[in-house]
Each structure stands twice: as structure tokens, then as C-alpha cells.
């Protein structure tokens, strides 16, 4: 694996004063509550790129160092796990574990794997650190061998301390449908506290552009910042192939530059290639990545189109985003989400506790908007946009 992804969340990275103080607060929370019956939960809220994962990496390294080397600390000898429900990000954490003396690859697990091992009596958990907790399943998923009703509830039944990071704007699938209010309702009966990170670390963009992305993905349209006062490279393209060529050039210059897209194009998990075609532009979707290297760091993926499932949680230097057929602008310049054009069938799988048709439509639309938010915030140095919908494309170009 190249070091690009590892370096972004290494426990050797320097922290800001705020981040250092938060790590100390989290350690104190764990030390206090490990001596009680539990569970006690600490939630870190924050948008994409606000440094949540690097805080967790530092915390877990210190936690395991205490557990494995300190003779008298309350955390001495505790059995602790770091969980993430995202196979690409898990690869990065396990790579980090191989570089630190007190972190083991087995410390890093998918939630379902740990839950099932605990249920079989093979493991127990004292402290759990959960990255991307908005990806935890909130309903049974037999395909993934989870037979409970909620992964967080299952984990709370076993651990003494749980520390999670959570961003409701990164909820992407019905089976992991969460909101902050749903999370807080679940935690109401246990000792819990929270902290919110707000400073944007990933994107070298102005606050105005970050605000524009957040507004766009809540269907509040206003002009793109004409210039955002930074070196951030923001462009809107009328031709997807020209955007691809520009991204290829950026990739030659600085690396880690990729094309990504929303759903809305042929896509089936059948092992075959499925293509996105926009005029002269013609590239296949990302293929399942069987290697230990994250998708974006594989050289050949410059000739593929990434999705939320390969890019969520990762930094790219430049991202070229295709806004697919479901994202349109009506004649009154209102952003519309055409659910009938959405091709990611996994995202909208039915769940028994959500039955109100109007509410379901709203939730599905927000899941699509969340996917746009995730993809728009991948680029550290630049964001290039191509919209399938001609009216939307024209609107973005006129106001750029």
C-alpha cells in the first residue's frame, strides 16, 4: 500500500490543540467508565473532513498502549477493538496497525464480525472505538450475517465504553439509516456525552464553498462562489470527456486524482463491467477491489469511475464529479431528485419500521443528496463538476 491514505490518519500525525484536548477528554471518559457496569457512550459529531478519524487513531493508539504496557492503569489488560463498517477504510487501519508496536491487525474489525464472535463466546469487549458510526446497520441484514436489529444496540449490550464518530450527512443506505435524533434517542437511557468538530481540514477551500456544498445537498441553491479566495481549483465542465482529460492531467502532476459519480447509470454487482457514457466520455464503474490497497491508490483506477462505496472516507487531491440523471433542475430553478432514475438498488432496500410513503420519499431523496455531499468533499485541492442535466449544468456554469 502507498502511504497516502495511511499518512492522513496516522497516530503519528501532529494534532491541533483542540484535537489533543479531545483525545485527553476521551481517555479520561474511558478511564472513568471502565470501572462501572456500562455502557457509557461518547459521540463525536462532525462533517466530512473535520479530522474525526485522526482523533480516533491517536486515541486508540494511546488506549492500546495503556492496556498492553501500563502496570496499574484502570485500562490495563482491557480488551478493546476499533470498528469500521467500510472494507476500504479497514484496510488502511490494519496497515497502520502493522507500523505501531502496540496495535495489532486483529484489533481492527468489521462490526458484524465482532458481534458474531462475542455472541459465540470467542471474544469480549471493554472499550469500542467506532469510526464512521453512521455506517452501522440499523436493521437486520442477513446478506452480511447480521441478525440483530441494530448494530449499536448489540455492541452496547457487551461493551463498557463506546466512542463513536457520527455524521448524519454521510448516511447513504436505508439499512444504515440514522439521524442525530435517532442516535440520541437510542442513547437516552445510558451515560453519554458528545462533542462537535467543525473545522474543515480536508478541503483547501474557503468556508463559502464548503457552505455552498452543504446548502446544495439540502436543496438550497444559490450561486457558486465566483472565486473562493484560495488556490482551490473549482471548475464546471460542459463536456465530461474534457473533465476526464483534466483529471488525468492532474493525476500525472500530483497523483490521487479520480473521476467519481453519483448513481443513475447501469450498475449491477454481477462481476461484469458496466459503463457510464456521457457523449464522448465512456468509462466503467469501479470494480470490486480484492487488494489491500484502497481503490483510489491503484494506478489502473484512473480508467474507472469511483462511487461512494470506494471513495467515502478517503482524500483525493482532485475529484471530477459526474452528477448523474437523478439530479435535475426544474424550470423554477429548484433542485430535484428523480428517484425513478436511481440505479443503486441496495441503497433503498425496504425496512419494516419506516412505512409512511411521504417520509420514505424524503429519506430516499436525502440519501441521494448525502451521496453528493460525500463525493463533493473528496478533493483536497480541487473539485471539477459535470452535470448530466443540461439545465443544471447551465445554471452551475452561469454562476461560476
From TrEMBL:
Residues forming the AAA+ ATPase domain are: 38-189
InterPro entries tied to this protein = AAA+_ATPase, P-loop_NTPase, SLFN_3-like_DNA/RNA_helicase
Q: Which Pfam families match?
A: SLFN-g3_helicase (PF09848)
User: Would you tell me the protein name for this molecule?
Assistant: AAA+ ATPase domain-containing protein
Origin species, per record, is Levilactobacillus brevis (strain ATCC 367 / BCRC 12310 / CIP 105137 / JCM 1170 / LMG 11437 / NCIMB 947 / NCTC 947)
Amino acid at each position: 500500500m502507498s502511504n497516502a491514505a495511511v499518512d492522513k490518519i496516522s497516530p503519528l500525525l501532529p494534532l491541533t490543540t483542540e484535537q489533543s484536548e479531545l483525545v485527553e477528554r476521551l481517555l479520561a471518559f474511558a478511564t472513568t467508565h471502565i470501572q462501572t457496569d456500562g455502557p457509557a457512550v461518547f459521540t463525536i459529531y462532525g462533517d466530512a473532513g473535520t479530522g474525526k478519524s485522526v482523533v480516533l487513531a491517536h486515541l486508540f493508539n494511546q488506549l492500546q498502549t495503556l492496556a498492553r504496557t501500563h502496570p496499574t492503569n484502570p485500562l490495563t489488560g482491557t480488551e478493546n477493538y476499533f470498528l469500521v463498517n467500510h472494507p476500504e477504510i479497514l484496510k488502511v487501519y490494519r496497515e497502520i496497525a502493522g507500523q505501531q508496536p502496540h496495535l495489532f491487525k486483529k484489533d481492527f474489525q468489521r462490526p458484524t464480525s465482532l458481534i458474531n464472535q462475542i455472541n459465540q463466546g470467542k471474544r469480549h469487549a471493554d472499550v469500542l472505538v467506532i469510526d464512521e458510526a453512521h455506517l452501522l446497520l440499523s436493521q437486520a441484514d442477513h446478506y452480511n450475517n447480521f441478525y440483530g436489529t441494530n448494530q449499536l444496540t448489540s455492541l452496547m449490550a457487551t461493551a463498557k465504553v463506546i466512542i463513536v464518530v457520527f455524521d448524519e450527512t454521510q448516511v447513504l443506505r436505508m439499512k444504515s439509516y440514522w439521524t442525530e435524533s435517532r442516535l440520541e434517542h437510542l442513547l437516552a437511557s445510558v451515560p453519554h456525552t458528545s462533542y462537535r468538530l467543525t473545522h474543515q481540514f480536508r478541503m483547501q477551500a474557503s468556508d463559502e464553498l464548503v457552505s455552498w456544498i452543504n446548502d446544495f445537498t439540502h436543496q438550497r441553491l444559490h450561486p457558486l462562489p465566483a472565486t473562493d479566495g484560495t488556490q482551490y481549483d473549482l471548475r464546471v465542465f460542459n463536456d465530461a470527456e474534457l473533465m476526464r482529460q483534466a483529471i488525468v492531467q492532474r493525476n500525472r502532476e500530483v497523483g490521487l486524482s479520480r473521476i467519481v459519480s453519483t448513481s443513475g447509470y447501469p450498475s449491477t454487482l454481477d462481476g461484469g463491467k458496466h459503463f457510464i457514457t456521457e457523449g464522448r466520455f465512456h468509462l466503467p464503474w469501479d470494480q470490486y477491489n480484492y487488494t489491500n490497497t484502497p481503490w483510489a491508490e491503484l494506478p489502473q483506477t484512473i480508467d474507472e469511475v469511483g462511487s461512494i462505496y470506494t471513495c467515502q472516507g478517503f482524500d483525493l487531491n482532485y475529484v471530477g464529479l459526474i452528477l448523474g440523471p437523478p439530479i435535475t433542475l426544474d424550470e423554477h430553478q429548484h433542485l430535484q431528485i428523480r428517484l425513478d432514475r436511481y440505479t443503486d438498488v441496495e441503497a433503498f432496500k425496504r425496512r419494516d419500521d419506516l412505512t409512511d410513503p411521504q417520509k420514505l420519499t424524503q429519506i430516499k431523496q436525502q440519501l441521494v443528496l448525502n451521496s453528493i455531499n460525500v463525493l463533493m468533499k473528496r478533493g483536497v485541492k480541487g473539485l471539477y463538476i459535470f452535470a448530466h442535466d443540461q439545465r443544471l449544468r447551465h445554471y452551475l456554469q452561469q454562476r461560476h
